[in-house]
Amino acid sequence: MPLRSKVFRNDRALEECLVRDAAHIVTGATGPHVSKVQTAVTLLDHSEIDPAEIAGKRYGRSTAAAILAFKSKRGIINRAYQSQADDIVGKMTIAALDNGMFELENKPDLDRDDVCCNGDPITDGFRHAVRNQLSLAIQQSPEQGDFRSRGFQLASAPVTGALGFSAPTFSLLSHFSRLTPSQIATATGVFGTSIDFTFVLLCDISGVSGRAFTVVAGPLLVINCGTFSPPNSTLIHELTHVWQSQHHSDAAEFMRNSVRSQALAVAENEALALVDPTLKTNPKFPSQFPRSPYACITGRPFSEYSAEQIAKQVERNFGAAPGTPIATATDPIVSHIKGVARVAVDADNVTGLKTARTEDKRTAGALF
User: Fold this and answer.
1) Which CATH number covers residue 70?
2) 277 and 231 co-located in one domain
3) How far apart are CA 215 and CA 201, in angstroms?
4) Which of 47, 175, 217, 313 could form a disulfide with 330 if both were Cys (CB 3.0 to 4.6 A apart)?
């Protein structure tokens, strides 16, 4: 049976690992298939892997240790010649990782707070990959000069594939696309003229568990949704991060704030679980339950919200009918965003992104 999970299927190296001993993944291996294994074991076991190994897609010591722990926990041992687990990804291991990811991907959503994964540490590897691919694409483009002036010919349809490219004639540009006129029209209804879409691209790469994330790449902002036709709610959420970038003196500050807020949520939740261990039974623990970087209490000043809290309010406002409680509660945030001039640094945005924030989703009236 071929691999079934979205993160593994159609990956030649992983499919080979499932059926051939010679294709087992061992220490020293590198490549997109290693990155996918790292993603899976981190999501399934909350494993801690060296960020350098993640960025380099390298099967190093910490990745091997995570796999060994994964196999030991599940008793993945070839009894024909082993008495204990090893740290190699072989047939049984890749099948177990694939089954775990397939089950995780097909669990019903328990809430709506995890639209994007900007704050997830694993996303850092994806961010580096997108920057590298875009840099290579621009270098290989025959046009010269400034991005704005030369038009930059981009694909209009997504390409099936992961982060790596094997065919030498493969066009890296096919992974990137401008927003369509329809998408810009939808976004303009929310953001008015406050976003410069000239420097905004969509990418068909997605992040952890297929979630979206936004990357600063020089003057460009790349929204990575795994498709050029993401749901409008996801597009609006990620475009809020574009707005935060374009209206700050440091274009990447929204990413750092998101990472800090995610780390804060994990630390707070781990501390709460010392008092109430039952919190650990929630599938969202420890990253998004009970405290979450996406959750917030509405009605506060714009400057008192973090990156994901603002993006969540704008997203929920977009999906709410006018006059409903959610729309009324989040209208001031959208009005503030729409009212900022296109090239201006917004002082409230700068202040808000200085502080990592979370909210307890169990709090009455919490939005997430």
Assistant:
1) 1.10.101.10
2) no
3) 10
4) 313
